[in-house]
Amino acid sequence: MGTATAPAAPAKAARKPATMAQALNRALHDSLAADPTVHVLGEDVGTLGGVFRITDGLAAAFGPERVTDTPLAEAGILGTAVGMAMYGLRPVVEMQFDAFGYPALEQLISHVAKMRNRTRGTMPMPITVRIPYGGGIGGVEHHSDSSEAYYLHTPGLQVVTPATVADAYGLLRASIASDDPVIFLEPKRLYWGKADWSPDEPETVPPLGRAVVRRPGRSATLITYGPSVPVCLEAAEAATAEGWDLEVVDLRSLMPFDDETVCASVRRTGRAVVVHESSGFAGTGAEIAARVMERCFHHLEAPVLRVTGFDIPYPPPMLERYHLPGVDRVLDAVARLQWED
Amino acid sequence: MARSSLASGSGKPATRSGKRPGTTAAARPETTGPGHTPPPGWRPMTDPAPLLPDPEPFRVLGTPAAADADPVLMRELYEALVRGRRFNRQATALTQQGRLAVYPSTTGQEACEVAAARCLGERDWLFPSYRDTLAVVARGVDPVEVLTLLRGDWHNGYDPAATRVAPLSTPLATQLPHAVGLAHAARLRGDDTVALALVGDGGTSEGDFHEALNFAAVWKAPVVFLVQNNGFAISVPLHKQTAAPSLAHKAVGYGMPGRLVDGNDALAVHQVLTEAVERARGGGGPTLVEALTYRIDAHTNADDATRYRDAADLEPWRAHDPLVLLENALRDRDLVDDAELRAVEAGAEEMAAELRRRMNADPVLDPMSLFDHVYASRTTQLREQAARLRAELDAEEA
Ligand SMILES: Cc1ncc(C[n+]2csc(CCOP(=O)(O)OP(=O)(O)O)c2C)c(N)n1
Ligand SMILES: [Mg+2]
């Protein structure tokens, strides 16, 4: 995990190795304990504790009315969550896997995202939709999609994705506390990554919408998020051998988008590569590259490049390594940033 | 639940074998050898017989029960029907004058619309579909605010929490799970709030209809679903929509009672809905009500119904008009005279004139408000975009 270079929090309580899964579980637990209007609902989230065990122990601690095994119907889960929010509750919905969130898209796009605007602010939708996403876990078809661009193209939604254990906790707490809906994308291949973390005094994180510089550098900026953050940190380490000192920006929140942190970095380095594993065409990287170009044109020494998954349906598990952007592909892109000028 | 004619059931056997469920397994013939037993632990989750709709749509008008109906209720319903019909006519006229972008009329369906509003208590919630302007107005919401969506100055004009009316829902059946979730939340909070959700016959084909009914039944949510079966989904008749015995029968598959009612009999719809609401309030769970009615006008002012139905199809329904049925019942019992009927008409005219007057005023538009409610506070991006629009507006004004 790429927490090594993040500013260290004052270590009041004992820090010990914890996984992102444990931090997410703790965030749900603490949210349920702190606010009686928080309700967790989804498929298998109760007795089983979720297929990834993110809700482990919550039903036992808070009872089946707070942590509810619903019928197996994603549109129904999100649609009833809308009604619960209308009555003043704060639902936290789990979609079992990225691709199984699609049945809920109509409720999401037509109601969750639009209700506040439709009702001139009188009917907010404080709903968090947790979605395990992305590949790299050897999942068979429909278990490895990176669906962030669908959500990002929907005004009214916030889209958040953690890359570290500490952020997983802090961003999920902040998402649940937000009065606007949040698509909370959990990079499932980072679920079991460990970092030293204090569950008793978890670090607080800034409000949603703030990116963070994970690794400071002077030569070029890698702009990335979620599962690609560790890839970029690794690439940055490897790049030192070539004499490149790469900065890594972890966006954390894709909407709201932190133009300020991104542009400040690119203005310093003059070069940028956007890295994500979802398809490139009309993807998140296209938006980011355009924003950087519009705002930092006179600081750029080279075009903003993108390293993304191919424009193909997510591959079968035995072929996924050819699709996922890895360290070499990131370094290749860095090499193409017109250094010779 | 005080079912009006349930005790007699459908008169048909509840299962193919003619035996009541729950007794069938025990009554199976002797079996031989291992494996020749029923699947382990099988028993029906619920007895379907009490859930079945009546064989005939429930009616009050034209039956002996009409003689005992509450005269005050009859008069009030009648006045509401007359005003409702006048409202539909006025709103359609407003489309011709360019004051409304579109209007889906409920002429012919006034009994359902009015009863849906009147069966609810103060703290109950109504979840209307896009056609149900009249139900929202009958609930007491300011008509100009209700028409905001169709006028086009915003997507919704009233405060849902203050009025306990959800926004008119254009994506068909999507409002149904909302009603279930809200009713469920109310119950979790210990309130005795009930939600009534409206949907059309076409909307029952949507996945959200299925999911909402299933969630409602599993959670025993205090919610009532009213399907106004008005014969058409735009141009598509019911037989292209479903092969179910009736839409009310669909309830049985979810484990909730289905009720069939004459949707043009205001007293019958009012009674069936009131019973279902009280059943829900009392913890009895959800009910699906199918009201048989007819869309007398075209789908909207922009539709040409002659492309898919004959004028002659309307005749039997004109004879079964909700206003005429109730007026006849009032006259039969000498509960009204001509002067009173004229007074009701005059009241409706006054309402229409007032609506006309208010709708003929241009709404005040604020383009900058486009950015106000996307999020609780504007994002950096929206602040930038708002500044751009502000500059354009300033340049226009200069
Ligand atoms: C999800 C969705 N699909 C299609 C439409 C377009 N549409 C609007 S009304 C309508 C017919 C609805 O028929 P029904 O449910 O019977 O209601 P009615 O119009 O008769 O009140 C259609 C297809 C829509 N509004 N929403
Ligand atoms: Mg219809």
Automatic annotation (TrEMBL), chain A:
Database matches in InterPro entries: THDP-binding, Transketo_C/PFOR_II, Transketolase-like_Pyr-bd, Transketolase_C
EC number from the UniProt entry: 1.2.4.4
A Pfam family annotated for this UniProt entry: Transketolase_C
Enzyme class: oxidoreductase
Segments forming domain Transketolase-like pyrimidine-binding: 18-193
GO MF annotation list: branched-chain 2-oxo acid dehydrogenase activity; magnesium ion binding
Keyword annotations from UniProtKB, A to Z: Oxidoreductase
SUPFAM superfamilies in the cross-refs: Thiamin diphosphate-binding fold (THDP-binding) (SSF52518), TK C-terminal domain-like (SSF52922)
UniProt-listed Gene3D superfamilies: 3.40.50.920, 3.40.50.970
Cofactor(s) needed by this chain: thiamine diphosphate
GO biological process: branched-chain amino acid catabolic process; response to nutrient
Protein name as catalogued: 3-methyl-2-oxobutanoate dehydrogenase (2-methylpropanoyl-transferring)
Organism for this UniProt entry: Streptantibioticus silvisoli
Lineage: Bacteria, Bacillati, Actinomycetota, Actinomycetes, Kitasatosporales
